[in-house]
Design a protein that fits this description.
six-stranded mixed beta sheet, alpha+beta, binds (R)-mevalonate, 41% helix, 2 domains, 9 helices, Alpha-Beta Plaits, Ribosomal Protein S5, domain 2
């Protein structure tokens, strides 16, 4: 085993189409320029520590380490992992998927190998299922790709990188309450089982928004993208995955000049994304209002290194 071995991966934002992507509809997402790093060392494992050597109480990261190590022919009982993250957990910014992809990369490095992108996508989805039962695979795809893309689930998923007209400045604002993607995915499933026709109509509307969103990104039309955000947020509200806290953040973003804002990820709490004519001014206005907000620049997907 080659140790210490390191792996990194970014978080994600879903720009349009969360939840409907679980039902084979397209969605638009991007990797984030902030993420998570894993370092593997020899030790009694499989064990995962946070920064400063604090044991991670959640058993799932150690289970991910165990599976990832085994996949690369390593002995998980002899490995400990330290995780350093810039991503707040439970806010819909892809911390679980980033952990999974970074762990795969670190285990591959420890085995003297490199994971190909296709394998990252397939294995990432398998391992992410430990965090929520029926993932579409969009979160690990974003962690693996790093830039903006259209996604339709499948084996393999249909991925179309989006060529952005320019780097996309996006405001991310935080709610206070962490939430569980597993719970909101299950709630949407119940609703779909109870009212398939009604839900499929909503899914159709989001599919049309994703097509508009792709054009807006390719043209660099933030106003059009913001309009798509607002319409998608209305559908997410109707699906029951928004909350009063998210609704409040969306309204504050609009009042501060955003073209549009929406929840991102599983919902039920978590983060809100917004676009506006001046992203830093929008983030600053939200911060003055007591909201934690920052600007990220989304980019096109870079070709896989040879
Ligand atoms: C979670 O980030 C996105 C969902 O669509 C679930 C999934 O696609 O796996 C809610």
């Amino acid at each position: 085993m080659r140790v210490p071995a390191r792996g990194q991966a970014g978080g994600k934002v879903i720009l349009l189409g969360e939840h409907v992507v679980v039902y084979d509809r397209p969605a638009l997402a991007s990797g984030l320029p902030l993420g998570l790093a894993v370092e593997l060392r020899p030790g009694p494992g499989p064990a995962v520590y946070g920064e400063g050597g604090v044991v991670v109480e959640d058993a799932r990261p150690a289970a991910v380490l165990e599976r990832a190590a085994t996949l690369f022919g390593l002995d998980p009982a002899a490995i400990v992992a330290e995780v350093r993250t810039q991503l707040p957990p439970g806010r819909g910014l892809g911390s679980s998927a980033a952990l999974v992809v970074a762990m795969l990369r670190a285990c591959a490095a420890a085995a003297g190998r490199r994971v190909q992108r296709d394998d990252e996508l397939a294995l990432g989805r398998q391992l992410e299922a430990m965090f929520h039962g029926t993932p579409s695979g969009i979160d690990p795809a974003a962690a693996a790709l790093g830039g903006c893309f259209r996604f339709v689930r499948g084996e393999p998923p249909a991925l179309t990188p989006i060529r952005l007209a320019a780097a996309l400045p996006l405001v991310v604002a935080f709610g206070d309450r962490p939430r569980s993607t597993q719970a909101t995915v299950a709630a949407v499933r119940e609703r779909w089982l109870a009212d398939r026709r009604g839900c499929e109509r909503l899914f159709d509307a989001v599919e049309a928004l994703v097509a508009r969103g792709v054009c807006a990104l390719e043209r660099g039309d933030l106003g059009a993208l913001g309009a798509c955000f607002a319409e998608n947020q209305a559908v997410l509200d109707e699906l029951g995955v928004s909350t009063p806290e998210i609704g409040g953040l969306v309204a504050r973003a609009r009042a501060a000049g955003a073209f549009g804002a929406k929840l991102t990820g599983g919902g039920g709490g978590g983060a809100v994304i917004a676009v506006g004519p001046d992203a830093p001014a929008l983030a600053a206005a939200l911060a003055r209002d007591g909201v934690r907000a920052f600007v990220v620049e989304l980019r096109s997907v870079q070709p896989e290194a040879g």
